[in-house]
Design goal:
This protein is mainly α. β1 and β2 form a beta hairpin. The protein is elongated and about 80 Å long.
Length: 172
């Protein structure tokens, strides 16, 4: 390939990339002016925070809740009860985030305390321990953590499973 055709190809790719970027920016939705309703749902300020700091903003609490829900593979309704007296724009009941009637919410609080305890009192004491424990460390996208099964190849390298006798040493 000639040097001039290589330069022409590179220029064409650069121009095409710029054209795509300009088109994408032109089609991007504009931010609504101040005072106009946005497409984001409105969430009330956090109430009934018992294990999270009461100084957290709505956005901070939502971020934490979305992380927890993702770690367990659930939605908000897993821990939060529906309020049949308040209907959302989709025609379904809105969630009452302050309500404590679902036992899953109590479990989530207890598990949060456990994670905090593990990170503060155990992980921090191990040199080079790596990342702190999170909900996802155990749950990995499941409400009930899946049982850990040692891969068969690990048995070969680290000895027999508990309860089994090690193989006899070779005769000499």
């Amino acid at each position: 390939m000639k040097l001039s055709s290589l330069k022409t190809s590179s220029l064409a790719v650069a121009l095409l990339s710029a054209a795509i970027a300009v088109t994408a920016m032109a089609q991007a939705p504009a931010t609504p002016p101040a005072g106009t309703p946005s497409a984001k749902p409105h969430f009330p300020p956090p109430k009934n925070l018992q294990v999270l700091p009461k100084t957290l903003t709505t956005e901070q609490v939502l971020g934490i809740m979305h992380t927890w829900a993702g770690s367990l593979g659930t939605g908000c309704d897993h821990c939060h009860a529906a309020d049949p007296n308040h209907m959302g724009p989709n025609g379904r009941p809105m969630l009452n985030f302050a309500d404590d009637s679902k036992p899953e919410k109590s479990t989530a609080r207890m598990m949060y305390k456990m994670v905090e305890d593990i990170n503060s009192n155990y992980i921090s004491m191990v040199d080079n321990s790596g990342q702190p424990v999170t909900c996802g460390t155990c749950h990995r996208g499941h409400v009930s953590p899946p049982p850990f099964v040692i891969p068969p190849e690990e048995h070969e390298h680290h000895g027999p499973p508990a309860g089994e006798k090690p193989p006899a040493p070779p005769a000499q």
